[in-house]
Amino acid sequence: MSIMQISSLTKKYGSRLALNNINLQVESGEIVGLLGSNGAGKTTMLKCIMGMLPCSFEQLTVRGNCIKQSFHLAMQDIVLMSDKNMFYEHLSGFDNLYFFAKMYGKTKDNLYKIVEQVGLKDRIKDKVRSYSLGMTQRLSLARCLLISPKIIIMDEPFNGIDIVGVDFMIKTIREISQKDNTSFFISSHNLAEMQGLCTRFVLMKEGNIVGDVQNTDVLDIKSIYLEKMG
Predict the structure, then answer these.
(1) Could you give the maximum distance between any two Cα atoms of the chain, in Å?
(2) Is domain 1-77+151-162+183-230 classified as CATH 3.40.50.300?
(3) What's the average model confidence in pLDDT over 145-162?
(4) pLDDT, tens digit, for every residue of 217-230?
(5) Where are the domains of the chain?
(6) pTM exceeds cut of 0.85
(7) Is the dihedral of CA 86, 98, 80, 224 positive or negative?
(8) Angle in degrees, 0-180, between the axes of helices 133-145 and 163-180, rounded to the nearest 10
(9) 3-state SS class at 78
(10) Helix (H, G, I), strand (E, B) or coil at 173
């Protein structure tokens, strides 16, 4: 089942074409890696998907709900995990999550389950200002899980995280995908980590999709990436 469908997505900044006729779909439970160099259009695409940038398209739906005509319905099933810190650092991790839960119209009944799922049980009552970058990323993932999304959009989730934090994040994403059949659409420069995580890769260059390949045990994504980006 397709969770997200994109047809003829185009974005211009003045006369510059940032996204050129993008066609893409993400199936239920897929972990799709979005790869490309700086300026390829990855973050622009993510912002267009989330309705944060004006753009033109023939189709841009989440579970059949268009982000223009049925924006609020679409946003019930999709969430963006940004690389930016969105939390109140003087509050505890738990108080931050409770704030977002109330904003989403959720109760705090399942907060501790989510906290345990992302590995923050022992530090959730500490103030966010004391968190490492890796812990802040885990809290960001917990915030995303509050709405029980069908697809999670991630923008550079591994940036600045040590190898232990990256390994934990990869394992957690896999578990969520397998247990809840949640899809992930992940933009990242870290080819090695993505190779071990993603079920599929979409490669972008200068606003165009130049490759779309399924991951396998014998796939060398680095070689494909260098070939497509050359």
Answers:
(1) 51
(2) yes
(3) 93
(4) 888 899 999 998 87
(5) 1-77+151-162+183-230
(6) yes
(7) positive
(8) 10
(9) strand
(10) helix
What is the token pair recorded at 125? 């009552």
Structure tokens at 19: 């996204």
Res 106: pLDDT: 85
Tally the residues of the chain: 230
CA end-to-end distance (rounded Å), the chain: 34
Other C-beta atoms lying within 10 Å of the C-beta of residue 84: 8
- Contact between 31 and 177 under an 8 Å Cβ cutoff? The reply is yes
The runs of H, that is alpha helices, within 18-132 are: 42-49, 71-75, 93-103, 111-117
d(CA 159, CA 99): 26
> Which H helix or E strand runs over 2?
strand 2-13
How far apart (Å, rounded) are the C-alpha atoms in residues 83 and 160? 10
Count CA within 13 A, CB hemisphere, residue 168.
Answer: 16
d(CA 192, CA 56): 34
| Six token digits for residue 175 | 């578990």
